[in-house]
Each structure stands twice: as structure tokens, then as C-alpha cells.
Amino acid sequence: MKQITDLQGTFRLSNNVEMPYLGLGTYQADNAQEVIDAVKNALNTGYRHVDTASAYKNEEGVGKGILESNVAREEVFLVSKLWNADQGYESTLKAFEETLERLGVDYLDLYLIHWPVAGKYKDTWRAMEKLYREKRIRAIGVSNFLQHHLEDLLEAAEIVPMVNQMEFHPYLVQQGLIDFCNAKGIQYESWSPFMQGKLFDGKSDVFDELTGKYNKSIAQIVLRYNLQKGIVAIPKSVHENRIKSNADIFDFELSEADVSYLDSLDKGARSGPDPDNFDF
User: Fold this and answer.
1) Cα(59)–Cα(100) distance, rounded to whole angstroms?
2) Which of 25, 20, 19 is nearest to 53 (CA)?
3) Which tens digit of pLDDT belongs to each residue from 182-194?
4) Domains of the chain by range and CATH?
5) β-strands 24-25, 49-51: how paired?
6) Mind listing the pLDDT tens digit for each residue in 218-239?
7) Taxonomically, which superkingdom (predicted)?
8) Around Cβ 87, how many Cβ atoms within 10 Å?
9) What are phi and psi of 266, to 5 degrees?
10) Which residue of 26, 151, 216, 221 sits 20 to 30 Å from the alpha carbon of 194, by its own alpha carbon?
11) Residue 89 to residues 47, 55, 122, 216: CA-CA distances in angstroms?
12) Segment 236-264, tens digit of pLDDT
């Protein structure tokens, strides 16, 4: 198990960049005061990793939140993602500049291809490699790439993606994909670690024993599970109390048996689109 120490702890990427293993997700946070306050609250709580995307339409607000916080830009691991309509070589270069402008920054810590658009992602990756070599981005990666997408990309890639951001939670573990990424030196990262809230639906008692045993919430148990599996997690919240609660996971450790129990809940259940079958 990788050492899990505190809110500003990191996992080291293949190029030796340190990526904080707990971050703030901003999916569906609006571009106004909501996301500005969420980012400020997270950074002032101690988070040093903020994840956004062109498709979220809130990059401006994320940038303002960083600017208005008490934390310097260079201390924040800032992530954004290239949207599907912008894939392709020249269009990726253009979209990247537009993302920087919206965020009000001059570089990204991590830039991801949001989805594996057939016939486009190899040219897109060439543009990402160019931006990386020009030191415009500290690390480059992908999102929602299954093993066959990665294998196809790696046939043409000169640089192996440093990160693969996937839907991940106890009901969608995809251990084979995690193992493949680990073997290739690709850091696994989870979006929707709470299955877009479905883990809290109240109709299941599968977490009851663990929440009682560790005196922690389902959210805290699940986030700790992510980190102990070596997976970066970016829970989304706009509520200050939940942002703080999500970070309160460094005073306990799940046993190996309990990690295995959570793995055993896997049933291939997705809350988001299937990377092999999306039409956007």
C-alpha cells in the first residue's frame, strides 16, 4: 500500500511530478459564486488539487476561486480536460489556449483527453505531447480510456499517458484496468467515487458494519478505500462542511480484509456513460 499521510500528500507520476491524491471535483458546480466559493473553501481547508473541464463550463469560476484564495497558484495542482468537439491536432492546441484564458493561468498541471473519440484521440494526443514538451503542461493524460483504447493509443504515442481518470467506486472497480494502468506506469484516478450519490441511497446496509467499525461516514470510508488502492480521488462538493468532511480521512486505515470486501461489491455498475458506447 502506498503511504497515505495527510491532505497534501501526493502520488508520484511517471515523470516524477507529485500529484495530490485527494482533490476537489467541480462537475455540475455553476460558473458563478458556487464554484468560486467551493474552490476557495477547499484550498483554505488544505486541498491542493482542483479538477475542472472545458465541458463543465466553469473554468472561469475555478480560476477566480484560486485567485481569491490564500493559496499561491504554484501550490495548486490544477487539472482540466479537452472536450470531444475540440479533438484533433490543431483544434486541441486552440482549445488548450482557450482553457488557459478562461482559467486565467499560463500553464496546467495536468491536461486530460476527456473521452476516447474514435479516429480523433491519436491526433489529439500528438498535440498534447507537443504542449507537454513545450512545458505548457506539467503532465498529460486521458479520461475514460479502457484497456483497448490505451493499447491503441500506445501504439502511436511517444509519451505514455501519466494519468487515466475513470469512473470508480465499489460497484465499478475494473481491477483488470487498474492493474494494466499500474503495469504501464499510468496513475489511476477516480471520478464519481460516490457513484453520483447512489452509494448513499439508504436502501443498502453493505456499508453499515464499516461505518460503525471505523466511526466514519460512507463517503469517508470510500475515499479512504480509493487512496489505499493507490487511486487519486476528486469528490465533488460545493458545501463547505462536506468539503471538510471529505478531507477527514487521515486518522484511520482500512484493513486489507475491508479493502477486499469493498472490492467484492463490484458489479460493473456505471452511473455515467460507457466509454465503449457514448454519442457526444
Assistant:
1) 9
2) 25
3) 999 999 999 999 9
4) 10-264 (3.20.20.100)
5) parallel
6) 999 999 999 999 999 999 999 9
7) Bacteria
8) 24
9) -55, 125
10) 151
11) 33, 18, 9, 46
12) 999 999 999 999 999 999 999 999 999 99
Residue in the block written with cell 495530490? 20
Q: pTM higher than 0.85 for the full model?
A: yes
Residues known to be catalytic: 56
114 is in an annotated binding site: yes
SS3 string, the chain, reads CCCCCCCCCEEECCCCCEEECECEECCCCCCCHHHHHHHHHHHHHCCCEEECCHHHCCHHHHHHHHHHCCCCHHHCEEEEEECHHHCCHHHHHHHHHHHHHHHCCCCECEEEECCCCCCCHHHHHHHHHHHHHCCCECCEEEECCCHHHHHHHHHHCCCCCCEEEEECECCECCHHHHHHHHHHCCEEEEECCCHHHHHHCCCCCCCHHHHHHHCCCHHHHHHHHHHHCCCEECCECCCHHHHHHHCCCCCCCCCHHHHHHHHHCCCCCCCCCECCECCC
Q: How far apart are CA 257 and CA 205, in angstroms?
A: 18
